[in-house]
Amino acid sequence: MQIDLVPIWTAILAVGVFMYVFLDGFDLGVGILFPFARDDASRTLMMNSVAPVWDGNETWLILGGAGLLAAFPLAFTIIIPALYFPILLMLLGLIFRGVAFEFRLKTTRGRHWWDRSFFWGSLIATFAQGMVLGTYIEGFQIAGRHFAGTSFDFFRPFSVMTGVGLIFGYGLLGATWLVLKTEGELQAWARSRARFFLIGVLAFIAVVSIWTPFLKPYIANRWFSWPNIAFLAPVPVVTGLIVLTLWQALRRDRDILPFVCALGLFAMCYLGLGVSVWPYVVPHTITLWDAASSPKSQAFLLIGTLFLLPIVLMYTGWSYFVFRGKVRSDVGYH
Asked: Is the distance from CB of 164 to CB of 18 less than 8 angstroms?
């Protein structure tokens, strides 16, 4: 009896993508907030809060891309050509912000250039990721087994909106991370920024939730037909409860709970996206099983993945454990 490995690979990719969005999301969010801090000392603390872990966070991006190529090669050959330009912008942004980490604290005269590099790299990478998300949700033009659209199909109103929306989302993650990791005036400032970004996130969640069901009839049917509406009702209900809890946590000056709630909000949005596009890996034409590599290939690759994935998880957990607690001005990144 042959075991169906598609659900296992789907779970691995889903976890990898979510871990990247969550972990790299907050440090991109810190970069988005960076130029609006009150002074240079605050900006240094902000960078120090993410400097020890930012490069490890991007491991999950590599896992997602490599896993897609290995387990669902047909999807890879369609999605990547359709998204060349936003992926290129994302990588350029990540490069510029990565260089800023190394050079900002080693210079004085040119520090303002690396401040800008950190901000614009974070902003451009976030906006590009949001455009990738929006284009993915809308789907791709396909002829047979190939992408049949143009290189600029990604530039549409929906994808631009999701790009801006992700800026607010990562800004929320970054602000709540600073609430968790800092103290005093910087923490109070981060709380006020978190409330601002939360309002923006709610607005974009509402627009996307209304817009998405109109993209394809099966999406609207999945969410609003009976008995699906009863089974899926907990998704918006739990999302609303998380938002209320997050707002109250910010108002009551909690440190840990805002970040946990921001993570929960992203998790519910991620779940809603999965419900909308399932079982397609290339919305809205090619299913996971249609795009999957051969069972032997998936089994061979799964052996290495199941060996390496726990190592990555342990390394990630250990990094955050070592650098736990509040960031201080007398301990920095060198």
From this structure: no
Q: How far apart are CA 282 and CA 156, in angstroms?
A: 18
Domain boundaries, the chain: 6-322
How many CB atoms within 10 Å of residue 334? Answer: 7
pLDDT tens track for 239-254: 999 999 999 999 988 8
Contact 168, 32 (CB under 8 A): no
Q: Please state whether the predicted TM-score (pTM) of the whole model is above 0.85.
A: yes
Question: What's the CATH number for 6-322?
Answer: 1.20.1630
Identity of residue 260: V
3-state secondary structure of 72: coil
Average pLDDT across the chain, whole number: 87
Q: How many Å apart are CA 11 and CA 1, to the nearest integer?
A: 22
CB 184 within 8 A of CB 40: no
Q: What is the DSSP string of 82-118?
A: HTHHHHHHHHHHHHHHHHHHHHHTT-STTHHHHHHHH
Note the pLDDT tens digit of each residue in 32-48.
999 888 888 888 888 88
